[in-house]
Amino acid sequence: MSSLSILHLLLLLLALHAPQAKGLPVTTSRSRYSVLMKEIMNDLEKITTTPTDSLSSDEKNFLTKESLLQKNLKVFMTFATDTFGNDSKIMKNLKEFQPVLPTATSTENPIFIEKNKLGDFRMKLEEYLAIIRNYLKSKKLWFP
After folding, report:
1. Is the pLDDT at 27 greater than 50, yes or no?
2. pLDDT for 23 beyond 60
3. Which key words are in the record (predicted)?
4. Any idea which architecture 33-48+55-139 has in CATH?
C-alpha cells in the first residue's frame, strides 16, 4: 500500500472517532452578558409584578446618557444590596457590568429609584438593561 492510501485510511479512522458537535452554542465571555441580563429579568419577574407605569421622558433621558451609565449602575446596585442583600444574584450580576461600562464623566445626578418600591426598581432596571445591551452592541461586546 502506498503511503498516500494509508494517510487517507488514517484520516478516515480519525474522523470516525472525532467527537461530534451536539448543536450547542459556543459560550464566549461576550455572550455571558445576555445570560446575566436574562437571569436578572427572571429574578425580577419572580419577586415583582409587571410594572403598569411607564418612564417619563426625563427618566429615560437619565438612563440613556452614556456618561451616566456607571453612576446609574451604582444606584441599581445600592438598591439591590439594600433590598436583596450583597450576596443576591441580582447584585452579583449587576456587578459584572462594571468593567465594561464607561467611567462616569458627568456631574449630573443619576437616576432616582423610590425607596422600597420594587415596581419602580424593576421598571427602571428593565429599561436600563436594554440601554446597556445597545451600548455593548455598539462596542462589539455583545453576541446574542
Report:
1. no
2. no
3. Cytokine, Growth factor, Secreted, Signal
4. Up-down Bundle (1.20)
